[in-house]
Design goal:
The protein is an alpha+beta fold. It contains 15 helices and 22 strands.
C-alpha cells in the first residue's frame, strides 16, 4: 500500500501473519519478492500485538527515535488511533529487548547513586546496556545495539511507556486524565489521537516521585498541584501535575512539548497562524520595543508567537526573562539572562514572580520577557515596571483585547493611566479543539491621551480583526500606539516602514521556513530606528 502525507510519502509492504512491516520511499528500487529487501527499504518486526489488525485503516507510519509510530483512522472511533512498537528488525531483537529489561538491574545497579538528571540517568543506563550487548553478543551491529540500549534505558524510567509520544516532534501536548485511563495527545498534523497506553497506580506514584526529583519542588497532599519544565534529551517538556485531594480521580497529568526547532515568523506565515500584514505589524512593534501582551486561551499558541518574535530582535539587545516554567528559547548569538521563579502552586515559594519583575529595574534590560502574567499581583508588578521605563512582552489568558483590559481594570485594580502604558494586545486562538490550526485573531493598539499632564487610556483600536486587516480608512488611530510612537521617533507615521516590511516578507515568500529572520531587527535599526526604515536593503 502507498501512504501520502505531509510527513513523507512512502510505500508499505505488510506481512500481518509474520508480523513484519517493510517501509520504502516512492523513489528507488522496488523489491521483487521476499525477503523484501532493496535499497532505501527498512523492515520492522511489529510482532503479534494487533499492530497490523486494522491495516486497511492505516493513515501514517514513521519512526520516532527507537520506535515505530503507527496511526489508524477507524470510523467507529472519534479520534485517530495510535500504537507504538520498538523499532526492531527480528523476533530475536525484540526478545533481547525484553530480556535486557528484566536483567538490567544486575549491571546498572549503581546508576542514580549520585544525583543525576533524567536525561543523564537514561544515557548512563543505555551506555551500560550497550556494553553488556557488546560483551555477550558482539555480532550485533553498532546501530542495532544503540537502538536496543536506548529502548531499555527508556523503560528504566517512570515515563517509559510514554517515550514514543514524548520524543515525537509532531506531538504538541499529551494528557492523562487519571490512573487506568488511556493516554491521548494532540498531533500537529493528525489532530487529537488516542493511544493504547494506560498508567496504573504504581506508575502514577513513580511519575509523582520523578517530577518531585526533577523540579525540587513540593508535590504532596498539602501542595497537590505543580507546573514545572523538564528537559528530556533535546525536548523541552512542561509538566502540569495534579494529585488528590485536588484531583478527585488520582493523578492528572498534562505534558506540553515545545518543538525542537522554534517556529520563525516565516513558519507562522506558512502554516496560516499569521498573515503577511499581521506579521509585518508585529515585527514593527517588537523591533520598536513596544509593550506587547499576547493573549488567548490555553494551547492557543501564545508562547509560540512570543518565541518567534523574540528571534527577530537585534542581537545586541540585552533581554531578561522571568518565567515559572522555562518556555523561552536560547539563541546562541543573543544576550539572554533567564530567571526561574517558583510556580503559583508552590506553597513555600522563595522566588516569586512579582518580586523578580521589580528587581529587573536594576538589571538593565533592553527588553523584558515575562512569560505568563497570571495574578493581580503579577499585573501590578508588570505595570509598575513599564511605568518605570522598562519595555516588556508577555502572555496572558483572555479571549480578546477588550476582555483583557476589563480584567486588568475590574479584577486586578489597574488604573487607566497605567493601562495607557501598554502599546499592543495580540489575541491568538485555536480554531478547533484538539486540532493544531491556530491563528492571530486580533491585533489592537492602545489609544491614549494626556489631560492636565496625566496620561490616560482612551480605548482600543483594532487594526487587525477576525484574521484580516481592518480597511484602510478606519485602521489607524491618531492617538494610537503606532502613530504616536512613530512621531516620537521623528517620523510622520509608521506606514512607510510598515509597507516596506510587507514588501520584504512578500519578497521572501519563496523561502518560508528557510529564511533566517534573526537579523530583521538589526536591519530595521540601521536607519536609526525601525520607523525610519522605508525600503529593502
Amino acid at each position: 500500500m502507498a501512504l501520502t502525507s505531509d510527513h513523507q510519502d512512502k510505500i508499505l509492504i505488510l506481512e500481518p501473519n509474520q508480523g513484519f512491516v517493510h517501509i520504502g520511499g516512492l523513489k528507488g528500487e522496488f523489491p521483487k519478492g521476499p525477503p523484501w529487501q532493496a535499497d532505501g527499504w527498512e523492515s520492522v518486526y511489529v510482532g503479534d500485538h494487533g499492530t497490523l489488525d486494522n491495516w486497511e485503516s492505516l493513515i501514517d507510519i514513521y519512526p520516532v527515535g527507537p520506535y515505530l509510530s503507527v496511526y489508524y483512522r477507524i470510523a467507529s472511533s472519534p479520534s485517530t488511533l495510535h500504537r507504538a512498537v520498538p523499532y526492531v528488525r527480528t523476533p530475536l531483537e525484540l526478545a533481547l529487548v525484553e530480556r535486557l529489561c528484566k536483567e538490567k538491574s544486575q549491571f546498572t545497579g549503581t546508576v542514580g547513586a549520585c544525583r543525576m538528571n533524567l536525561t543523564a540517568r537514561m544515557r548512563e543506563i543505555s551506555f551500560l546496556v550497550a556494553e553488556r550487548i557488546s560483551d555477550t553478543l558482539p555480532e550485533i551491529s553498532s546501530p542495532t545495539r544503540a537502538r536496543i540500549a536506548e529502548i531499555v534505558g527508556h523503560r528504566s524510567n517512570a515515563l517509559g511507556s510514554l517515550f514514543p509520544v514524548l520524543l515525537d516532534d509532531e506531538v504538541e501536548e499529551t494528557y492523562i486524565d487519571g490512573p487506568q485511563s488511556s493516554m491521548y495527545f494532540d498531533h500537529r498534523r493528525l489532530g487529537r489521537c488516542s493511544s493504547m497506553i494506560t498508567l496504573g497506580q504504581q506508575d502514577a506514584e513513580r511519575i509523582v516521585t520523578l517530577v518531585r526529583c526533577e523540579s525540587n519542588l513540593h508535590l504532596d497532599r498539602h501542595n497537590p498541584s505543580l507546573k514545572t519544565d523538564v528537559n528530556l534529551f533535546d525536548a523541552n517538556l512542561r509538566f502540569s501535575v495534579c494529585l488528590p485531594p485536588l484531583s478527585v480521580d488520582g493523578l492528572h497529568l498534562e505534558i506540553r512539548r515545545a518543538p525542537s526547532n522554534p517556529y520563525s515568523i516565516y513558519d507562522l506565515i506558512r502554516n496560516g497562524t499569521l498573515t503577511i500584514e499581521a506579521a509585518a505589524l508585529l515585527l514593527l512593534a517588537v523591533c520598536g520595543r513596544f509593550n506587547i501582551t499576547i493573549t488567548g486561551g490555553p494551547g492557543s499558541g501564545k508562547t509560540t508567537l512570543l518565541n518567534s518574535l523574540d528571534m527577530t530582535t537585534p542581537r545586541a539587545w540585552r533581554k531578561i526573562y522571568v518565567e515559572d516554567a522555562i518556555e523561552s528559547r536560547r539563541f546562541g548569538d543573543q544576550h539572554q539572562v533567564r530567571y526561574r521563579v517558583d510556580p503559583l502552586d508552590e506553597t513555600e515559594a522563595k522566588f516569586d514572580k512579582s518580586t523578580e519583575i521589580i528587581k529587573t529595574l536594576h538589571r538593565s534590560p533592553d527588553y523584558l520577557i515575562l512569560g505568563e502574567i497570571q495574578t493581580a499581583e503579577h499585573s501590578r508588578a508588570l505595570f509598575q515596571a513599564i511605568a518605570a521605563g522598562l519595555r516588556s512582552i508577555q502572555t496572558c489568558h483572555s479571549d480578546s483585547a477588550s476582555s483583557l483590559v476589563s480584567r486588568w481594570m475590574l479584577n486586578h485594580g489597574i488604573d487607566r493611566s497605567s493601562i495607557a502604558l501598554m502599546d499592543v494586545i495580540v489575541t491568538v486562538e485555536r480554531l478547533t479543539p484538539g486540532e493544531s490550526k491556530r491563528r492571530v485573531k486580533e491585533i489592537a493598539e492602545i489609544r491614549r491621551t494626556v489631560n492636565d499632564g496625566m496620561l490616560s487610556f482612551a480605548g482600543l483600536n483594532r487594526v487587525f480583526a477576525n484574521g484580516t486587516i481592518v480597511p484602510e480608512k478606519s485602521r489607524w488611530a491618531k492617538d494610537g500606539a503606532f502613530i504616536l510612537r512613530a512621531q516620537e521617533q521623528g517620523a510622520d507615521s509608521h506606514l512607510a516602514a510598515y509597507e516596506a516590511l510587507i514588501d520584504r516578507l512578500v519578497g521572501s515568500s519563496d523561502s518560508y521556513g528557510a529564511t533566517d529572520t534573526s537579523p530583521i531587527g538589526e536591519r530595521l535599526w540601521k536607519s536609526g530606528n525601525p520607523f525610519m526604515h522605508t525600503e529593502q536593503e
